Structures
1.
Amino acid sequence: MKRDGWLKEPNGFWVLRFRYDWEAWGQNPKVIIDKGRLECNGIPLLKSRKKMRRNLAIQLWEKLLAAGWRRTNPQWK
């Protein structure tokens, strides 16, 4: 099983978590993308969640890296 992918925005405020949607993987591969940030009390604030086709998620990942987003360690579970 592959790990989740995490990206942090250049100013360090928002974080995106890319993870496979295993329930639909066999029929129509999709990726779930969570946007959030870790609050000072250690609890994550999840701002949004969307599902995207795998190939579009890969394109988004590459576009964000080119725009200055950086890979980061997992921020929440």
2.
Amino acid sequence: MGYPSQPHDPYGQQQPQQPYGYSGPQPTNGYGYQPPTGPPPQPPRRSNIGLILLLAVGVPLLLLGGGCAVLLVVADTARDAVVTEADSPNMRMPSKEPEASQPAATAPAQEQVQEQPKQEQTTATVGGSITLEGTDPALKVTVTLNQVFNPATPAEDYMKPKTGIKLVALQVTLANVGQAVYSDAPTNGATLIDGEGQQYRSTFYDVREGQDLNGSATIAVGDSRKGMIVFEVPESAKLARLQFALNSGFARQKGEWTLS
């Protein structure tokens, strides 16, 4: 029966064999190295405290974040549902304002009224006065129909109307009560109307009943003029009305006097 070989040191020397159960100092290899004996050392045990804390804190936070996300989704869904319901074409909010189509329908009528203003007209009788406004709002003249001469007498015997025609003279007074000078031909703004609706313009005849207003007249503010406006009409004509307007008849406002 053989014996196991003995360990050798680096120089080939055998190490002494220790008896079984010897626990004393271990032999070295001559350099102070002592070979390990016994079972190999165990690695240190790791602690699980960090993992436990991470789970204890992270899991509640994860659950809390998920719950908040669910609440946000539910709230956003509810808001979308409300907006969708409010924007429904079947819903109509009550309003006291007129619909947009109403002003558009009346706009053309209003523009037409502005483009074609209604002519203002006042009336009076013989002896009455009417204040008229010219194309310039600062021009205002009070016109008074003083007398009517029907028929009127020609101033010259050789200047007589034709057979069947007579002269009619209307005496008027023009008083400038505005803020502008009146400069016009007054006879151009006068129109005589008979009972059948026929119109007559003034003529150039002079009459013995008074001085006529033929030609132009310039009346300062606060001043006045009086004279005759003469017409040629058929002898059978019945006088009905006199119409008069400033600016040779082009002013918007007209005055009318009843003659019968």
3.
Amino acid sequence: MKPCPSGPWDEDDRELVAHVAGQLVADTRIQGRHVQVTVQNGVVILEGTVESAAIREAAGRQVWAVPGVQDVCNMLVPDAS
């Protein structure tokens, strides 16, 4: 799990990306997967691969539950293997 390092973030976005990444890392279904978390103006963008569509949806729900999230763009892709 890594926050996206580029872009002009404000302090709220920096705090939000850390909180969202922490939530996702705590989920054993997502640990060890390459998931990128980007936040811009309260909008969380998730990119990368996860094991299944169910995990993709669960990750999106977790992010929506984080206080301060204005919107979620869930671009996670279920692993085809």
4.
Amino acid sequence: MPKESPGKPRILATRRMMPDVEHRMKSIFQATLNEEDRPMDRSEILERAARHDGLLVTSFDKLGPDFIQNLPASIRIIATHSVGYDHLSIPQAEARGIAVTNTPGVLTEATADIAMLLMLGAARGASWGDRMVRENRWGETTLTSPMGHDVSGQRLGILGMGRIGQAVARRARAFGMSVRYHARQQLPTDQTHGARYFKRLEDMLPDCDFLSINCASTPETRGMLNASMLSLLPTGAILVNTARGDIVEDEAVIQALKTGQLAAAGLDVFRNEPNIDPRYRQMDNVFLLPHLGSATPATRSAMGHKCIDNLEQYFRGERPTDLLTTPRETCLDLHTA
């Protein structure tokens, strides 16, 4: 690993962050901030990275193998302002000895809140109800139309029972929902809030009035919710996704919404966001949000500070708390290489 450059480490941030985070960054590092908060494409990030030791990126920065391969030798660490890291090529970073860190734990509650908002919004028609009021169509309502769907007392299936999945289960219990989950491994009962475990997703889906996607995007989960899987849900089920858009197949979801296999969907994440499938925008039975899972001041601040904690640990020669990679040299070799 290259020797530490004299003075403070040089960090390039690709987007603006909360003021307290940026203030701390400037006090610890030679920080290059994105003052205009405009998206930078990969070529610009590569060009500016040449004068830095580390990068602080976001999930909107799609940094695949070619990007990592072309990073200058000065870059030793990439801190992503997100829990998910499917936008980064971890194997390529490991091959180059570049450390990568993320921000687990601090956005659990905010994202679980959004999952519940999506359930309620999709089920009770928040999108079309809001439009009816704004468009002065309130007078069109009758005792039989339009109608939403009950949430309380319904059966909720959770795909992925990590921190966020567990937080969703805890909230769902307050609505009297009966909860079941599918994950790679069964969890201790004190972590599941009474949820029933299904080893096979195919066995859980027929038992779900609502399905909340809370798993990570991995080669195993991408495209998992396809037409075949969605057909296993009871007719009129409701789908909620706060994880990653590529876990579902858009064509399958859209067709299920059209046929009534899905009564509604609540979506905070999308494939190729923000360039989503335009058909979603035309559907009354879809409640859409622009990836707001972590969008509260306290949560975004905590995420930014977690990035800085990891960067600071690394440049002190320590192993970052949220290290995702195993660089060729350990972080403890930083000052002696």
